[in-house]
Hints:
15 helices; 2 domains; single chain
Amino acid sequence: MPGIIERYRERLPFASGDPVISLQEGSTPLILAERLSEKAGVEVWLKIEGANPTGSFKDRGMTCAVSAAVREGAEAVICASTGNTAASAAAYAARAGLRGAVIVPEGKIATGKLAQALIHGARVVALRGNFDEALRLVRELVHRHPISLVNSVNDFRIEGQKTAAFEIVEDLAGELDALCIPVGNAGNITSYWKGFQEILPPTHQPRMCGFQAAGAAPLVHGKPVEHPETVASAIRIGNPARWEEAMDAMTSSGGTVKAVTDAEILAAYRLLASAEGVFCEPASAASVAGLLTHGAGEGVRRVVCVLTGHGLKDPQTALEHAGAVVPCDPELSAIERAVLR
Ligand SMILES: *Cc1c(COP(=O)(O)O)cnc(C)c1O
């Protein structure tokens, strides 16, 4: 499959001669989760966004944001990030031959994401502050310098990310009742809603069910959270940039925004890995935790849960919440005891 700009060019703001910076993102698997369906009492499909080139859905938006930056003649791109935007921006900047700078909250980013941003050659700046402060600062910075901002406040990001909705509609022939999705800065739920509205008739829109971590749930409380805290670092955000649009998506679709605790997130995270063979990162599991805890609404039969990022991004959390390694002497009887126990 080509990348999303080539696959969906007629629905994206790119003409045929425009530069395209792509790693063949998109066209990710949508898989039926039978055990989870049984547990949830509805048919559950998983959109595996961790299968994108840098391991998260951010690549869909980044191919568009970086291609547009090249078209505009930018020399560098910058973002504030809880990790995945940084990894993606760094990779696409490298591919485009642009300089990349990423501002991350110090000590609050998963190991894999940090490794990605660094190995792709981005300048990684650890801010002694949280994501919301980082975003505020980069927005000021790009007013003063000719650097392209590739956070989801950039409309090209929304355009690219809406293509995931197109893929789901194609794969399910337009038949889905609800979408469950984690919400952090609220760009992705905005993107899906835009995508669905562009290709489905108004009577056929799925309910948009957004889930936030309980310690970082500004949309649920109706006010910013000053010190957001959750194990799901990708959605540790207290003041979402796409606040109004996300609320509009959920209200106009008859959906909801609800909170899930870290314990619920981690239970869903382990369940996906052990019962479905799908390893996502903690933030991604908020979609499934939300479905299991709150349901997706009356009359809903088929649900798509968006698994936004790959589990390998955050090996630390996996090791902390999985079983222990079994030590063993190099003897047959010992191996037997260790394996068959
Ligand atoms: C960015 C991200 C989110 C949140 O998406 P928003 O557009 O900020 O709401 C959720 N999960 C993962 C893995 C992410 O990288």
